[in-house]
Amino acid sequence: MAGNPSELSNELSVTTKPTPVPDPESISVSPSSKTLNVGETQQITATVSPSGADQGVTYTSSNTSVATVTSSGKVTAVAAGSATITVKSKVKTTVKNTVTITVVEPTPSGGE
To answer: C or N: which end of the chain has fewer Cβ atoms within 10 Å?
Structure first.
């Protein structure tokens, strides 16, 4: 009224909550299966859904004498046989997918 300022209000403190990150629901892998010659490598690509979920995954091989896998998903064929690479969410380990790796001996080239 008439340009007279009012008294200051009490101080208000506000804390905002971070935007929640959705839980992982599924993992897609590419390729889903692969045949490799001994000594060959294959990079596995894993995508966690939904897109806003933590994309962190772990990779493990069911048979490291046939195929090994690095923490970044690079598979190395060690010996003939088969192995399953399991890709699991780091946040929700029940969310997983697998890649079937078949390792064969290289076909000898013709000649002596």
So the answer is: C
